[in-house]
Write a structure and sequence with these properties.
about 450 residues, mainly beta, Neuraminidase, 2 domains, 5-stranded mixed β-sheet, 4-stranded antiparallel β-sheet, 29 strands, about 0% helix, about 40% strand
């Protein structure tokens, strides 16, 4: 007599239905799962870059985040959201941050999801549009009982326009993991964005600099570094190369990899370039050329390479995810869903925690001290223009953000006796931020 045994398997937690695997023929398999943002192809139709190609479009509407397994199958993680993008994985690989909108009319907010059960909690609220969250390492102060984790995000909460008078500027903010203790970290008069946590605990990010017309009226977007508490804001990478450096990451083999372009398309894609982490101010180089396609949102792999999205420059196909071998200069496809732009890959694995940082910043003290070590160290082409000993006094200037009124920026009226604003506009119609003299001091 035939006997049939029915085995019932009970699972704790939701059963995820895996979607079909990647459409790439013979894709490279990596041993780790990864998070990928999938942007609807139709969402890119009609999209253009902003500020004459300096800033990418504010894309993300209708996007979703999927978990791609090592076999290429994928599971949608954010099906309860109208839009979700910008994932960042915690050090233990068990949870991740992302920017999301539950409905089309919502502002962008920061959320955190636990991968094991897909539980979601909201972190930010009523902070404007919040994007690009990343985990910080631990922060410590002398009067705190123990270190604590924080996160960094990008927000337009200040409500001030970029200093060309167009669009709302974004800046870096931090908060604790429960959304409390919000602190603004950067105060650029134009936009700061694309933060990345370095292993030493500092933040690397892109900053739009237009303090002078030395590089043309559009200025430049350069890589800067800053401490977790907003102190020691300084240029990080070699200023050579194209006008725009954004979407930075740091590979396990010591390269600071980013996307570079003189003018970006709607998605901000461009060539892959890099500087050495050991000598970032003198080592600019490019890894790809125009014929290699346009690259987007690189992120490090545990074995030294990077994951990065790529699409044809002519827009004939959507972004696909691939592994880029920095030594060989070769991109090999890992995952592609032809119905979506696949961007922002983030590997899910346990990694070493970045170094913790201490802070002496106190929010109840609004004033600080500014130190100048050597006024003879300048960015002049020749040291003969200002030999040591020739400077007797220094003047400190402040760039004044424009006040927003509706959709039009109102420029503050400069003091008629203040000669700091002689070059506050350009012939090309790109106004520079009004500058205010804060004071002067003798050189010791």
């Amino acid at each position: 007599m035939n006997r049939f045994v029915v085995l019932l398997v009970l699972t704790a937690g939701p059963i995820w239905a895996a979607e079909p695997t990647s459409a790439v023929r013979d894709p490279l398999r990596i041993q780790w799962p990864m998070l990928v943002t999938q942007l609807p192809i139709e969402a890119s139709e009609g999209q253009t870059s902003r500020h004459e190609g300096m800033l990418r479009a504010e894309f993300g509407e209708g996007a979703r985040i999927v978990l791609v397994d090592s076999d290429g199958s994928r599971r949608v993680l954010t099906d309860g959201f109208h839009s979700a993008c910008d994932p960042d994985v915690f050090f233990d690989g068990a949870k991740f941050l992302f920017a999301g909108k539950r409905s089309a009319d919502d502002d962008w907010n920061i959320f955190e999801m636990t991968l094991a059960d897909r539980s979601v909690r909201q972190v930010t609220d009523q902070m404007g549009n919040c994007r690009s969250p990343i985990y910080q390492s631990t922060l410590f102060t002398l009067d705190s009982p123990e270190p604590w984790y924080q996160l960094t995000f990008v927000s337009d909460a200040a409500g001030t326009p970029n200093d060309d008078g167009l669009g709302v500027a974004t800046h870096l903010y931090s908060c604790e993991l429960d959304g409390s203790t919000v602190r603004r970290l950067t105060y650029n008069v134009s936009s700061d964005f694309d933060p990345f946590l370095m292993q030493d605990g500092r933040l690397l990010f892109s900053s739009w600099q237009r303090s002078t017309t030395e590089h043309g009226p559009r200025g430049r977007i350069r890589l800067f570094g800053v401490n977790l508490d907003g102190t020691d804001y300084a240029l990080f990478a070699d200023p050579a190369g194209p006008a725009i450096q954004h979407m930075p990451c740091i590979s396990q083999c010591g390269w600071v990899v980013f996307v570079a372009a003189d003018q970006v398309p709607w998605d901000g894609a461009g060539r892959l370039a890099a500087v050495s982490y050991r000598r970032p101010l003198r080592t600019f180089q490019t890894f790809t050329e125009a014929g290699d396609g346009l690259f987007h949102s690189p992120s490090p792999l545990p074995n030294g390479g990077i994951l990065v999205a790529r699409r044809p420059a002519d827009g004939s196909a959507a972004h696909a995810i691939g592994r880029f071998d920095l030594a060989a200069g070769r991109w090999q496809a890992v995952f592609d869903d032809p119905d979506w732009h696949d961007i922002q890959p983030r590997v899910v694995f346990r990694r070493a925690r970045a170094d913790g940082r201490s802070s002496v910043v106190r929010d109840d003290r609004p004033h600080g001290a500014l130190y100048c070590l050597d006024v003879a160290v300048t960015d002049f082409e020749s040291s003969d223009w200002m030999p040591p000993g020739s400077v007797k006094r220094v003047r400190l200037l402040e760039g004044v953000p424009q006040a927003a009124k509706g959709d039009v920026a109102e420029r503050p009226s400069p003091d008629s006796s203040d000669d700091a604003n002689d070059e506050a506009s350009t012939d090309a119609g790109w106004p520079l931020a009004v500058r205010r003299i804060l004071g002067e001091a003798d050189v010791m």
